[in-house]
Every structure is written in structure tokens, then in C-alpha cells.
Amino acid sequence: MPVNRTPATLELDDIQRGVLSPRPTPYAAVYLAFRIDDRAHGRELMRRVSTVVPSAADSAGPLGETWVSVAVTCHGLAALGVPRSSLATFAWEFRQGMAARAKALGDTGTSGPEHWEAPLGTPEVHVVLTAVAPDVSRLQAAVDRARPAYDRLTGVTAIWRQDCYALPSETEHFGYRDGVSHPAVEGSGIAGSNRLEAPLKAGEFILGQPDELGGIHLPQPEVLGRNGSYVAFRKLHQDVAAYRRYLRRAATDPEDEELLAAKIMGRWRSGAPLALSPQRDDPALGADPDRRNTFLYARHDAAGFTTPGGCHIRRANPRDASVAGEVRLHRMIRRGTAYGPPLPGDALADDGVDRGLMFAFIGAHLGRQFEFVQSQWMNDSVFFGAGDTHARDPVAGSPEGGGFVIPRRPVRRRLPPLPRFVLTRGGEYCFLPGLRALRWLGGLRH
Fold first, then answer.
1. Using an 8 Å Cβ cutoff, are 231 and 71 in contact?
2. 3-state secondary structure of 206
3. In this structure, what is the dihedral angle of CA atoms 84, 86, 90, 96, given to the nearest 10 degrees?
4. Nearest-CA neighbor of 265 among 214, 253, 277?
5. Which of 124, 163, 287, 420, CA to CA, is 20 to 30 A from 153?
6. What is the CA radius of gyration of the chain?
7. Would you list the domain boundaries of the chain?
8. pLDDT of 236 higher than 90
């Protein structure tokens, strides 16, 4: 049965702005986690935050590209008094929580929940408040505006904080430009970063709207589920020194080192994709948001001679590649923000400082979006038909020891075994309620 492609009419005034808006560049961000110790105070928190969280219909306003968003874990909904019968209508991955899904996600060994940063992955985390802004001053203004929502509520305890800031290079810690890709969502009014990708059905991201399969998923009661989304938060530590040492050891000279870095990622460090600049870096292309993400694979590079099939960006988003199944069913909104100071540019030894990325993966289907991509595309080789040559994502996959091969003629190039460059330090599955749902949570009486 064909899917109805009639554009969605979204209730933008009820959707949190942080669900659909791309992250600003540059940026500053903060993540705050709270535990609800008193149900009445937790409900008061919901009432208050409903007045400071901007909607997707709001204009940029005096703070520019700035927003505050509020997400609630399943334990948080229970702490607020949401009935079990209602909780049972939410996605089962959400009800289990990210820590319980660790094995399926590849969070094992040193990335296992037993090594996570407390209190992430525990029943203690109930509410996550996120503020994002173009700079520190506007971020502080946003936090100051939100502070009255949780300040002096003795039954709500702040238990964790993570500050994030754009690095001076406007890259992530491995040295690549980030924040490049953003899908278009029907009815959002926000353009996607790839003009060759048709907008996705709103139900891929907004609960209560038809998705790519024509289905509508809506936790109950409707006032709670409608216009909400799910978000997977991840704190990922990056071993920058190990990544640099690996490239240095595998390369024949500095020029070759940059080529290997591009083949592993699928982009040059400037952000220019191999698909559009296969022979050398093109910083002007990498800095151009209208061009740097507008490309496909299947027609011109199905075999991966330009952009290897196992590289990071091709695994995270295979675009039009038929080997990956129906790609549109697994698209997410991804946002990454860096934490920790950069490792000096010439250092090859670890300095013991924690640095990495806070990620937010937003969608309406935790199972076939975040979990599928993490378990099948990032940590398995089935969809890429490459056996142990592309057994996992070379940058963020697990466990260590997998191979990586660069297709080329006449002889392909096999790189040394890959150590683990990224470790999971924690994570949470959360629900991003609509603004009416926040008010409804604040008005619960039982």
C-alpha cells in the first residue's frame, strides 16, 4: 500500500524547538540531569519548564539560535506519577533504558554500564534539561532564564552536569568539521542539508504523525504522547592520542596520513566529502553548507572506490545505497557537542584529560532508528557484505580489532587492526514531551 506523501501539517507551537532546529555553529551547550525526590515538586518543575521551553513555531528571538529543551526518562515519568498503563504504551526500548540495552548497542568491556559516569544509566536520572546557544554569553542567559524553573524546589535535586563548547577549530576532537548533516522534516519549514534527499515524513521524528510506512505511533493518553519525540543521549570519550598514533603508524607520509583520515571518515577534516573532492581536500567546499552535504553514492560510487563502504559517514548514513535496506526508515536527527579541552595539535601521548562528544539522537522509533544504526550499521558488517574487513565502524565502532580496507585498483589497501578510539561514558533514553504534555504532567493529581 503506497504511503500518503501529502505534506504534514505540524503543530509547531506544541513541539519543543530543540527537536527540529539544527544546532548553531559555533555553539555552547550544557546538559543538566535532575532526580525527582518529591512528586509534587517534580510536577511543579514540569509546569515551570513549560513556560521557558520555546516551541518550534517561535522565531529566533532576542537570544538568537538559542533554546532550552526538557526530556524525561521512563523512571522520571514514573516518579511524576504517570500510570503504569500509560508507560506500557511507550517504546519498549525506552522502558528498558539504555543501560539495559548495552550489549545490543556494543557497550561492552570498558564501554559497559559498570564503567559509566555516575549517575548516567541508573534509575536516579529522571529529567534532562539541555540548553544550546551560539556562544557562552547567550547560553548563560538561557540558563538564567530557565533557572527559576528548578531553583528552590527542594524535592528536585541536580545530580549531573556536562558543559560543552565549540573548539576553537570548530571541529570535534579528532579534527573533523562536525554538525554537517541535518535531514529535512515535512512540515517543519527547515531545509535539510542534502538537497538530493526528499524530506522525511514527520512521523519519523514526531509522535502522532504518519511515518514513512504510513503508521502512526502515539503513547497514551494522547495529550501526553502527541507531538513528543524520543532522544538517545550519549556521552562518548575520544582517545585522540590513540587515533593520531594509529594514523601516523599506518601512513607513509603526512599527505598519506590526511588521505587515510579522509578514507576512514568519508570526509576530509575540513568537512569536504570524498564524494565531491576525491583527490585532495577542498576547504572552501567543506565550509559551504549549501554544497558539502549534497551528494549520493549509488550512481557514481556503488563499489566504494571513492568513499569506502565501511567509512564512518557512509555507515552512519548510507544515503541511496541499496545494500543498507530502506535507509529512510533509519534516519535520525543527530546533534553532537564537544566537551573537554583539545589535545595539543602535535601531541601523540594521552594527557589524562577527559574529552569527547555529547550526542543527542532524535527520532520517533528508538528501535529501528538509533538501535538499528548502532547495532547493524556501526557494529556489524552484514549490510556491507565485507566480513572482517569492515566489521565495525572504524571511528566509533566496537569492539576493537576489526579491519579496514580501502578499495582501489589494482590492489586494495588493508590497514592495520583498529584499536578502540571511542568509549561510552554514559547514556539515557528519554522522551521529549510536547508543550501541552509538559503542562499535563504538571497538572497530574493522583
1. yes
2. coil
3. -10
4. 277
5. 163
6. 21
7. 12-233+431-442, 237-325+342-356+373-426
8. yes
